[in-house]
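Researcher: Let's run the pair from yesterday's discussion. Sequence first, then tokens, for each.
Model: Starting with the first of the pair.
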Amino acid sequence: MTGVQEGQQPTVGPVQSVGRAFEVLETLAASGPMSLSQLSVESGLPLTTIHRLTGTLVALGYLRQHSPKQYALGPRLIHLGERASRLFATWATPHLAKLVDTLGETANLAMLDRDEIVYVAQAPSRHSMRMFTEVGRRVPVHCTAVGKALIAQLPAGEVEAIVRRRGMPAQTENTITTPEELATELDVVRRQGFAIDDGEQEIGVHCVAVAVTEGTPRLAVSISGPVPRMNEHLVRRAIPVLNRTSRDMAVDLAVDLGSHPAS
């Protein structure tokens, strides 16, 4: 006889229709408004499935008709996004505030979202001259410490695909702008376990970051500050503190997600 015994958690696999609905939403989020036939091609889902899913999502307010033949993300997602962002910031802030107390510089939490980095939480330094990155800001992966820390965790093929789609525009004279240079830099990141941004995103700003390697979504934590304060001594002192914060965040995420980080 099969079944779930008392006290056991049921094993629940992915629900196909839910997964497909999110594939539709993710495709539109990445590519913008499109027709049902375009959506079918981009998502890889059958057109009949697309018809059924879009009808349901429009009725619920998660999609809207952008034009007679095109669909776009709906207004109900705004509320979900704002709510999720606030909850995520509430979870992250104590970890980031502890970093500021210990190291004195601005602490950031960033997430890899498809081909870009998005900053999801920040605790500002108490110095009058400090770094400030608006939560929600999106930046390229190749010119930030958090970006390099995160894509260093990916297979080389995925990194190449991101670079091919997003490009490697120069933000400053220090920005890495070729796939070969980036591959070399990511090898260094993997060996040493942390990434550096030395004025690659903004002149005069130095940043050091480590990835939160357990759990999901893909996150990285960093500290950033002006070059005179972010000297070699502070960076060396910051690395074990960032690694400890990364592990603490992984444990918290595992609890929230009902999973367990690797020991």
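Model: Moving on to the second of the pair.
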Amino acid sequence: MQRYGTVAIIGVGLIGGSIGLALRARGLARWVIGIGRNEARLANAERLGAIDAATTDIARGVAEAEVTVVCTPVTRIADDVVQASQSGLAKMLVTDAGSTKLKIVEAVESNPRACAAFVGAHPIAGSELKGAAHAQADLFEGRVCVLTPTERTPADRLSRARSFWMDLGCRIVEMDPEAHDKALALTSHLPHAVAAALAASVPGELLPLAAGAYRDGTRVAGSDAALWAGIFCENRLPVLNALEAFHSRLDAFRNSLDAADEDGIRAWWDAAHARRGLFDELEPAPQTGRVDGRQ
């Protein structure tokens, strides 16, 4: 099919590598170029088949690209989008995979050329694992990709971004950047913070007594600390608001427990059980090791 000619991927880790594998598996691109800072990691991504060629030079990597996807940490995405837009074809679409959007979009839109090429995106798929070695060609199958256009987003780029992410297997949802960040603070960033808090709350000497509840509740605490520190700081206020909502739920449990109110505890648990049931109804078939939230 080769719909996209050359596609450049800046940051060929789990997400970028999975994009490359999906493009190649589906025959969507004639050539997939990986761009990064570490030559050894790029060489590994090429060996694994995630990309066809690699370079550490963004300008060189995007020179012939019809689509460039920026998959670097959220603190670097805006700069990488701007740099790519200065060197690429006039018709190039630039999109990203960042877990936060408002600061990225505002920074990109301050540069006219970057603004003319860019559509913010967040494919809600990932893992606590990192690196192209864990990339999967079907990672995006049936997963939501949130696009965050503004009134300044060119209509033709938005249409192409919809097609691109759908061709990778995604279901498209469109939100403004601020609404995205508020939503993801609750659905992804808060669960990661809670998992980290839970993991650190159990003394090491008691871990032999931990089992499935600890394992499942803390799995994403195995994610990269620097990556998540950047996400939390980029989305600071929505995450703080999400923590307030979480604290209110814990306080309800604490109050019922303090009063030995078994009916109150049961009602508290039943509400959570019902909400989890709604999620299970929405969720695609289980995929081991995959979680929402861009890593």
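Researcher: Give me one sentence on the second I can quote.
Model: The two ends are 30 Å apart (CA to CA).
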